[in-house]
């Protein structure tokens, strides 16, 4: 079985290309994934893992993932080789993403987007079950639609 589950932070925005043969979208990026244990100096080390996402998954990643964001990737390991113009053989190992998820906490996302609803608008969000909310609706008859 070839299955990989990773959680890490994007080291750069996803780069998008299209295949020459059938114009299929492919997004590539790398994740900094922290190792489980610290080294002898007490520092946490990270592995930088190349990710490739095709078609709809690649489109999702290119549209919503940004540098520094924490994401989860489920996929498989793939190795490939090619010869360059000088005839030198190159090897690469990468993860082909089959599923991609946001892994930042909601609070982290809110702070990176300019704060919480309350910070921005000075009141609680509608439907937040706050007894003092100006947005309480007692029945469906009060709705304007």
**Major β-sheet strand ordering:** 1-3-4-6-5
Order of helices and strands: EEEEHEEHH
Give the DSSP E fraction (strand runs of 2 or more residues). 35-45%
Q: Which residues form runs of ≥5 with pLDDT under 50?
A: 110-140
Shape: globular
Helix content: 10-25%
SS content category: alpha+beta
Based on CA atoms alone, the radius of gyration comes out at 22 Å
Any descriptors?
145 residues, alpha+beta, OB fold (Dihydrolipoamide Acetyltransferase, E2P), five-stranded mixed beta barrel, 3 helices, 6 strands, 44% strand
What does this 3D model show about the protein?
- Helices cover 15% and strands 44% of the residues.
- With 145 residues, the protein is an alpha+beta fold.
- It has a single domain (4-124), classed as Nucleic acid-binding proteins (OB fold (Dihydrolipoamide Acetyltransferase, E2P), Beta Barrel).
Brief synopsis:
This protein is of the alpha+beta class.
Please write out the topology.
Blueprint: E1 4-10, E2 15-18, E3 25-38, E4 44-54, H1 55-64, E5 70-83, E6 89-102, H2 106-112, H3 117-121
Parallel strand pairs: 4-6
Antiparallel strand pairs: 1-3, 1-5, 2-3, 3-4, 5-6
């Amino acid at each position: 079985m070839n299955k990989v589950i990773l959680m890490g932070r994007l080291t750069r925005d996803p780069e998008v290309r299209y295949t020459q043969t059938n114009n299929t979208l492919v997004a590539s990026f790398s994740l900094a994934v922290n190792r489980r244990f610290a080294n002898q100096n007490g520092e946490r080390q990270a592995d930088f893992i190349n990710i490739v996402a095709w078609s709809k998954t690649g489109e999702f990643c290119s549209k919503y993932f940004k540098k520094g964001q924490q994401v989860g990737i489920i996929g498989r390991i793939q190795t490939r080789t090619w010869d360059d113009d000088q005839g030198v053989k190159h090897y690469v190992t990468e993860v082909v993403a089959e599923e991609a998820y946001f892994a930042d906490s909601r609070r982290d996302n809110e702070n990176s987007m300019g704060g919480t609803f309350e910070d921005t608008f000075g009141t609680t969000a509608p439907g937040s079950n706050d007894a003092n909310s100006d947005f309480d609706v007692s029945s469906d008859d009060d709705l304007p639609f």
